[in-house]
C-alpha cells in the first residue's frame, strides 16, 4: 500500500475535529440577543402547541364556547377583568353582596396593563382579545432579553443563557402569552432589578411608577431598596457608597413605598371608602374562609388550616418558611449575589404578609424568577435536558390544573 492511499483517514479525522471548532467559532459570533430570541421563539412554539392542544378539548365555560380559538382561550379567567377595566374603567360605587360585604370588582386589577392594551386598541382598531395577547407576547420577549442581561451580571454566559431557557420553559410560561398583566410586570421588574445592579437609581423612578400600577409590587420593591441601601452602607469600605448616591437611593425607596400605597389611595378617592382596595381583595378569599379583616402575616396560617386542618396546616407553613430561609443561603442561590437575594426575600416577606395561598400561589411566585439563575448552574448536558423537559411537562400540568375549565372549577390560575 502506498503512503498516499493511507492518507484519507487522518484527513477525515482532522476534518471531524475541525467541524465542531468551526461551529463553536460561528456560534461565538452570534450576538447574544439573537441567541436569546431563538430560545424565546422555540419556547413559544412549544407552549403555543400545548395551549392549542388543550383548547381543542376545552368544553363550553363561562368565558368561551367549546373548542375556542387561541385568543379567546388566552383571555379566560381574570383576563375578563382586565378587559372590563380597559373598556369601562372602575366603579365609583363598590358592589355589595346580600350580606353587606364588598363583592368582587375591578378595583383588584391595576390599570397599567389594560391601559397599554387600550391605547393599542385605539391605534390599531384591533379587539381586546388579540391585542392583549400581542402585548403579553411582546413583553415576554423583552423580559427574556433583559433577564439574560441581568443574569450575565452574576453568572457565566452559559449559565445565563440556560437561565433564559428555564424562564421560557417554566410551568407558568403560558401565562406570558395570555391576557394577564404578569408578562408586563416581569418586564418592568427585570428592568428595575437590572438598573439597581447598575446603580442607576434615578432611572428607576418611572419604571417603579409603572410597575406599581401594573401589579402590586411597590411595597415589596421599597423594602428591597431599603435593604439594598442598608447593605451598601454596611459594606461601603469595600464598595464605596457616596452620600449623594445614598440619598438618591433612599429617596427612590421612599418613592417606591408611596407608589405601593398609591392604588389603594386612588380607590379611596374615587369610591369614598378608605378600605375600598383591601375590601375588594378580601372578597376573593371569602370563598375559602369567609369575610375577615386583613391581618398581616395571618393569611398563610389561615390557608394552612383551611387546606390541612390543625395543627398540620400551621406546621407545614412554619416548615415552608424555614425551608425558604435555608434556601436563601444555599451555595447556588448565594451565587446570585446579595441584591437579587434581597429582592427574592423582600417579595417573599410581602407575600407572607398579605397573600392567601390557593391555586393562584404559583402565579404570585413568578416575580421570584431570579432563582432560576441558581437552578441553571449545573453544566451537565443531561441535567439541562432533563430539567427543561420536566419544566415543559409542568406547563401541561399547570394548564390542566389551573387554566383549563372543567365544570365548577375551583383552581383559578
TrEMBL record:
Keywords: Endoplasmic reticulum, Glycosyltransferase, GPI-anchor biosynthesis, Membrane, Transferase, Transmembrane, Transmembrane helix. The chain crosses the membrane at residues 32-55, 128-148, 160-180, 247-270, 307-330, 342-361, 381-405. Pathway: Glycolipid biosynthesis; glycosylphosphatidylinositol-anchor biosynthesis. It comes from the Bacteria. GO terms for cellular component: mannosyltransferase complex; membrane. GO terms for molecular function: alpha-1,6-mannosyltransferase activity; GPI mannosyltransferase activity. InterPro entries: PIG-V/Gpi18. Its main location: endoplasmic reticulum. It is a multi-pass membrane protein. It is found in: Endoplasmic reticulum membrane. GO terms for biological process: GPI anchor biosynthetic process. Signal peptide: none annotated. PANTHER family: GPI MANNOSYLTRANSFERASE 2. This is Membrane protein. It comes from Cryobacterium arcticum. The lineage of its organism: Bacteria, Bacillati, Actinomycetota, Actinomycetes, Micrococcales.
Amino acid at each position: 500500500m502506498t503512503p498516499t492511499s493511507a492518507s484519507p483517514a487522518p484527513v477525515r479525522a482532522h476534518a471531524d475535529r475541525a467541524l465542531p471548532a468551526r461551529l463553536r467559532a460561528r456560534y461565538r459570533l452570534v450576538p447574544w440577543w439573537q441567541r436569546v430570541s431563538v430560545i424565546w421563539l422555540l419556547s413559544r412554539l412549544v407552549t403555543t402547541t400545548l395551549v392549542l392542544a388543550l383548547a381543542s378539548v376545552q368544553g363550553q365555560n363561562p368565558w368561551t364556547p367549546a373548542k375556542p380559538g387561541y385568543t379567546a382561550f388566552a383571555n379566560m379567567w381574570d383576563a375578563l377583568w382586565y378587559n372590563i377595566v380597559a373598556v369601562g374603567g372602575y366603579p365609583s360605587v363598590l358592589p355589595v353582596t346580600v350580606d353587606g360585604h364588598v363583592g368582587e370588582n375591578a378595583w383588584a386589577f391595576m390599570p397599567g396593563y389594560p391601559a397599554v392594551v387600550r391605547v393599542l386598541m385605539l391605534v390599531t382598531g384591533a379587539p381586546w382579545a388579540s391585542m392583549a395577547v400581542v402585548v403579553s407576547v411582546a413583553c415576554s420577549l423583552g423580559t427574556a432579553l433583559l433577564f439574560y442581561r441581568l443574569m450575565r451580571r452574576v453568572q457565566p454566559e452559559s449559565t445565563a443563557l440556560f437561565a433564559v431557557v428555564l424562564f421560557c420553559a417554566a410551568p407558568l410560561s403560558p401565562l406570558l402569552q395570555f391576557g394577564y398583566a404578569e408578562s408586563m410586570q416581569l418586564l418592568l421588574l427585570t428592568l428595575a432589578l437590572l438598573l439597581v445592579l447598575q446603580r442607576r437609581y434615578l432611572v428607576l423612578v418611572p419604571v417603579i411608577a409603572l410597575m406599581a400600577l401594573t401589579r402590586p409590587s411597590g411595597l415589596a420593591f421599597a423594602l428591597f431598596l431599603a435593604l439594598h441601601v442598608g447593605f451598601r452602607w454596611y459594606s461601603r469600605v469595600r464598595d464605596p457608597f457616596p452620600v449623594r448616591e445614598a440619598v438618591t437611593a433612599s429617596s427612590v425607596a421612599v418613592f417606591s413605598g408611596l407608589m405601593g400605597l398609591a392604588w389603594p389611595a386612588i380607590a379611596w378617592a374615587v369610591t369614598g371608602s378608605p378600605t375600598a382596595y383591601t375590601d375588594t381583595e378580601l372578597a376573593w378569599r371569602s370563598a375559602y374562609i369567609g369575610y375577615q379583616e386583613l391581618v398581616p402575616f395571618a393569611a398563610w396560617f389561615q390557608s394552612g388550616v383551611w387546606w390541612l386542618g390543625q395543627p398540620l396546616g400551621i406546621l407545614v407553613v412554619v416548615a415552608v418558611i424555614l425551608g425558604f430561609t435555608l434556601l436563601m443561603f444555599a451555595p447556588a442561590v448565594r451565587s446570585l449575589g446579595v441584591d437579587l437575594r434581597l429582592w427574592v426575600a423582600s417579595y417573599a416577606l410581602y407575600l407572607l404578609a398579605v397573600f392567601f395561598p390557593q391555586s393562584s400561589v404559583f402565579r404570585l411566585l413568578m416575580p421570584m424568577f431570579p432563582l432560576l439563575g441558581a437552578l441553571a448552574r449545573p453544566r451537565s448536558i443531561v441535567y439541562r435536558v432533563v430539567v427543561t423537559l420536566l419544566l415543559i411537562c409542568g406547563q401541561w400540568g399547570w394548564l390542566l390544573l389551573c387554566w383549563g375549565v372543567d365544570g365548577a372549577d375551583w383552581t383559578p390560575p
